[in-house]
Design brief:
By secondary structure, the chain is of the alpha+beta class. It has a four-stranded antiparallel sheet. A four-stranded antiparallel sheet has the order 2-7-4-5. Strand 10 and strand 11 form a beta hairpin. Helix 1 packs across helix 2, helix 6 packs across helix 9 and helix 7 crosses helix 8.
């Protein structure tokens, strides 16, 4: 088999969605997947498009919708190993949201026919997908609850702790612009900047160039996150 297949097979092995598949099936998935590369800010798909199943191999992808006012509402960020496009794929409908590369990204795509065949042959993939989608729904419900019952400071502190956990350290870079982060947290960029500034003045975080954030006092940040 060629280098392209070996590259695809290595990727399939690392994707949680396919972790329980027999090796022979992983090879078939690798052969069927189409690799696509996207530049920063390039649209992967949008409302009205018929999508396949996209799996992030490299880079970072944002999923967002446009509100009636025309403002952008960030839904989630997709990192390597994450999949997207499954709702329109399984329902055989068109997409109702945008997916855009935030960084130079590489994604693998399986079309509907191949993926539904895979689900029929290997129900474990469907179970893994259901678990992931259920987890996303739970996070969405938590965010809706937070928007109605928590302060901006609490939501921001929780998000900073989450980003630190994902990065594996206290020093990390915000994966989105402050405007996008403010949209995700249900606030304005001005309010977000004030809250970040207040945390820095209190010695809880340090703000650096190129959207870097360092958590100096994680215990204090946890107190803000859990405040009544």
């Amino acid at each position: 088999m060629g280098d392209g297949h070996d590259h695809g097979f290595h990727f399939v092995q690392t994707v949680p969605l396919f972790a329980r598949l027999p090796e022979a099936t992983m090879h078939r998935v690798a052969s069927a997947a189409v690799t696509r590369r996207y530049q920063r800010d390039q649209r992967i798909y949008g409302p009205g498009d018929r999508t396949g199943l996209f799996i992030v191999h490299r880079g970072l992808v944002k999923v967002h919708r446009l509100a009636e006012s025309g403002t952008e509402q960030l839904i989630r960020l997709m990192s390597p190993g994450d999949f997207l496009g499954e709702t329109a794929l399984l329902a055989d409908t068109t997409s109702d949201h945008f997916a855009v590369a935030l960084q130079p990204s590489e994604l693998c795509m399986l079309d509907r026919e191949r993926f539904t065949m895979l689900l029929g042959q290997h129900p474990s993939v469907a179970v893994q997908m259901l678990q992931t989608v259920s987890s996303r729904l739970g996070m969405a419900e938590q965010m809706v609850s937070a928007l109605s019952g928590q302060s901006v400071a609490q939501r921001l502190a929780q998000q900073l702790l989450h980003l630190a956990d994902e990065s594996g350290g206290a020093d990390f870079r915000l994966p989105t612009t402050k405007k996008e982060l403010a949209s995700y947290l249900g606030t304005t960029p001005e309010t977000l900047s004030r809250r970040l500034g207040a945390l820095q003045e209190a010695g809880v975080i340090r703000l650096g160039p190129r959207q870097r954030v360092e958590i100096l006092d994680p215990d204090a940040l946890r107190q803000v996150a859990s405040a009544d």
